[in-house]
Amino acid sequence: MEEKTRLGLAILCVALLVGIIGDSLLRATPLGLNLVLWVGLLSLVGFAIARWQGVKLLGGGRWAVLPAIFFAGTIAWHDSVTLGTVNFVALLAALTILASRARCGRVQIAGISRYVGDSLFVAIFSAFGALLLLAGDVRWGQVPRGGMAGNAAAVSRGLFIAIPLVLIFGGLFMAADAVFEDMIRNVFDWSIPDLIGHIIVSLTFAWVVAGFLRLMLIGPDWKAPGGTGPRFMSLGIIEMGTILGALDALFLAFVMVQSRYLFGGTAFINATNISYSDYARRGFFELVTVAVLVLPVLLFADWAMRKENPGHVRIFRTLATALVLLLFVVIASAVQRMYLYYAEYGLTELRLYTMVFMGWIAFVFCWFIATVQRGQRERFAFGMVVTGFLALAALNLISPEAIIVKENVGRARAEQPMDARNVAKLSADAVPTLIDELSSIAPSDRRPIIENLLRKWSEEDGDWRTWNWSRSRAVRSVKANRDYLWELQSSKD
Questions:
Q1: Looking at CB atoms within 10 Å, which of 15, 79, 385, 487 has the fewest?
Q2: Where are the alpha helices (DSSP H) in 414-481?
């Protein structure tokens, strides 16, 4: 049997097992312990097959298994929907790097186009990789009749004959004894639609896992997109100088003319009819729009710029750096606007994540200057991904919702308005801190909060697959403080 056939058979068998386990684990929602167990199992079988079949995983992407398991674990750690969504996206990114770069390749040296290409490959192979295994990688004519494959075929033939006999004799025994009949009915209490549903879900998971492992252990049959590739167009310093010079002039004019509006702060807002909400949202919109447009423009400009003349390259990089520095002014303005919004109305998830996003964007542009502007373009994407992972890991460690509660309760102590409705909507992550701080909240504000605590966190879900540390801790906290909560609920001062 050829090595590729043996490896393909191993992937198919393991994928079927992981698919069945996935159906058993991931059917239970909301996701919690089940997701980290399944991702851990997927990673384990991938490395186990590689060791068993002698596949050398020498690529830098093999280390992506660590952030993959970490971000899967955060789903069983935090209950916040916002944080959980971002963690899930990070999990998919880590699995993408693992599948595409575990066998070969360096993740530190790869452009954004390469990362986009890898994401595309993972999606394609997850959807169609199993078909390549079944129709191309495994040479079914080489599968021996003896050994494991032969034994499996013999077992299948035996079951084909045994099942009708078992059904006949089992039916007779059930008719002869009521206790035996009840026992059999309890064991096989399945409905046909449920059974079909389990089969479909298991096979779907197995199909995706087979494609994922095929890319991880065998790789694509064609060269992945990325790298420099053919140069469809190139521009000289005159064209680039015109483009970047015009943008620099526009940004500079905006910063100079709008300086009063960008940095007017409280005095400016009080002198106009603009609300704090509109003021902050316009600042954030400016940041997002400029960041989304400027970064790809600069990356494309660096790619298209002809670099034969060192003097031209220095002019280009000077103009590009000036544009980034002017962009920092817009970022600073947006940060100030969001700070004013927070100072007036308090802290929410959106405002906190917005500030973190702003900080990450600022670092991305600093990293752009440190890499792309120094001729090390291939290192830019890796730094952007890693810093994104680190920023998200830091958010998980600091527990954003606990910070939100403390900040808003601090406002209540200072006799400033507190958005009690927003606080009441926070997830289980905020419950222990919220209970500790309830006595500092006005009775009119804390009543809806207490009602929400008693309604949502009085009982824990008994399904171990959906276990979540924050949800479990929230239930324990509410049970331990039930009398205290009822006392605060009934108090009027």
A1: 487
A2: 420-424, 431-437, 443-456, 469-480
